Amino acid sequence: MTNYTWTVSAGGTVTAGGTATSNSVTVTWNTAGAQSVSVNYTNSNGCTAAAPAVYNVTVNARPVPTISGLSAVCANSTGNVYTSQAGMTNYTWSVSAGEPSPPGNSRKQFRYCDPGTLPSTDS
C-alpha cells in the first residue's frame, strides 16, 4: 500500500508514524470522550477506497484523587490517618518530606517521631 492518509480527531495528537508511507500511527489522546482515527490508502492496483476506515476510540478521563483526614495536628502526635478513594489501584502517597508508600495502599498512617523526620507505618 502507498499514500496513506491518516486523520485523528481533534482530541488527539500524532506522536509517531501517520505519514504517507507509514502503515501505523501513534496517538496521544489529550481529550476525554469519543475520539477516532481513520486511514485511507492506495492499494497495489492504484485504487483508493471511496471512504476511509474509521476506528472509534473512547478516551477515559483521568482520575482526580482526594484525601481526607485531620488538617491540623499537634507536633509529635501519632496515629494521624489519611485516606483516599477505596477500590483504586497503584496508590502512591507522599508527604512534604517526600516519603512514598508502597503502591496499592489506600491508607497511610503517619507517626511524627523526631523534629524534621516523618517515618510512617502503612495500614
- Provide the succession of SSEs: EEEEEEEE
Rg computed from alpha carbons, rounded to a whole number of angstroms = 25 Å
Give the averaged pLDDT, no decimals: 81
Describe the sheet with the most strands.
Answer: 3 strands, antiparallel
Quickly give the structural class.
mainly beta
Please tally the helical runs, counting DSSP H or I stretches of 4 or more residues: 0
Q: Between the first and last Cα atoms, what is the distance in angstroms?
A: 57 Å
Whole-number count of domains: 2
Structure characterization notes:
- 0% of the residues lie in helices and 37% in strands.
- A hairpin with a 7-residue loop joins strand 2 and strand 3 (25-29).
- It has a 3-stranded antiparallel β-sheet, with no helix packed on it. Strands 6-7-8 form a 3-stranded antiparallel β-sheet, with no helix packed on it. The protein has a two-stranded antiparallel sheet with strand order 2-3.
- The chain has 2 domains: 2-59, no CATH class; 64-123, no CATH class.
- The protein is built from no helices and 8 strands.
- Mean pLDDT is 81; it is low at 110-123.
- It is mainly β and 123 residues long.
- The chain has strands at residues 2-8, 12-17, 25-29, 33-42, 53-59, 80-83, 107-110, 120-122.
